[in-house]
Amino acid sequence: SYELTQPPSVSVSPGQTASITCSGDRLENKYVSWYQQRPGQSPVLVIYQDYKRPSGIPERFSGSTSGNTATLTISGTQALDEADYYCQTWDTSMAFGGGTQLAVL
Amino acid sequence: EVQLVESGGDLVQPGGSLRLSCAASGFTFRNYEMNWVRQAPGKGLEWVSFISSGGTTTYYGDSVKGRFSISRDNAKNSLVLQMNSVSDEDTAVYYCAAGYSTNWVDYWGQGTLVTVSS
């Protein structure tokens, strides 16, 4: 099965920029999506097709890819952005990264 | 308003069976690919199974292949996961998840808890 690798945790100060990476073999040839999951809640799609934002997702969320690494960037991070973030792609099946806990300190 | 409402989660003994259901509303169900995704307590998301919009194509994760079965009824806007021969490792919250493409999930349900224990 396909593997996606994320850092377990990232910390950021309020108002600063947070970057969460996701790496996988030949990832540049696949679409990457990102989900936010706050404690006790269901995941929410924040980025799809590498960089597109669904309706209702703030502009401070952006996505990019370069080579085998996809990056979720949160600009002007707010306390409410504190959550777990998962990258996801489709190879021969759906694959999720292990998740990154974002701490806003 | 889009809604995915899972039901059927329960306490089940190892080796037993369970049937999870998902009722969809607020979007054109027949146009969406459907997945089951689970999350064990304190762990990350794990994809379980996929069914195409027309119901003709299904895929399963290695950990459930041969034990779980996914199906859908587009006339009733419903999705089902039949779980057989369950083990402790199947303990998780199970999410019903809808995507307009195979490449992402647009909508998630609130989840239903399955606990496997004797």
Mean pLDDT metric of chain A: 97
* Structural class computed from helices and strand pairing of chain A: mainly beta
- Average pLDDT value of chain B? 98
* Head-to-tail CA distance between termini of chain B: 39 Å
Give a short account of the largest sheet of chain B: 7 strands, mixed
| Sheet with the most strands, sense and barrel status of chain A | 6 strands, mixed
Please give the count of helices of chain A.
0
Secondary-structure element order of chain A, as H and E?
A: EEEEEEEEE
β-sheet strand percentage of chain A: over 45%
Described by the principal axes of the CA atoms, the overall outline of chain A is globular
- Helix % of chain B is under 10%
The number of strands of chain B is 11
- Taking pLDDT < 50 over at least 5 consecutive residues as the criterion, the unreliable ranges of chain B are none
What's the total count of β strands of chain A? Answer: 9
Description:
- The complex is a heterodimer of chains A (105) and B (118).
- Chain A has no helices and nine strands.
- Chain A has 105 residues and is an all-beta fold.
- In chain A, the strands form two sheets. In chain A, strands 1, 3, 4, 7, 8 and 9 form a six-stranded mixed β-sheet that branches. Chain A has a three-stranded antiparallel β-sheet with strand order 2-6-5, with no helix packed on it.
- In chain A, a hairpin with a 2-residue loop joins strand 5 and strand 6.
- The radius of gyration of chain A is 13 Å and the shape is globular.
- The N and C termini of chain A lie far apart (35 Å).
- The mean pLDDT of chain A is 97.
- By secondary structure, chain B is mostly beta strands.
- Chain B has no helices and eleven strands.
- In chain B, the strands form two sheets. In chain B, strands 2, 4, 5, 6, 9, 10 and 11 form a seven-stranded mixed β-sheet that branches.
- The radius of gyration of chain B is 13 Å and the shape is globular.
- At the A-B interface, strand 3, strand 7 and strand 8 of A face strand 5 of B.
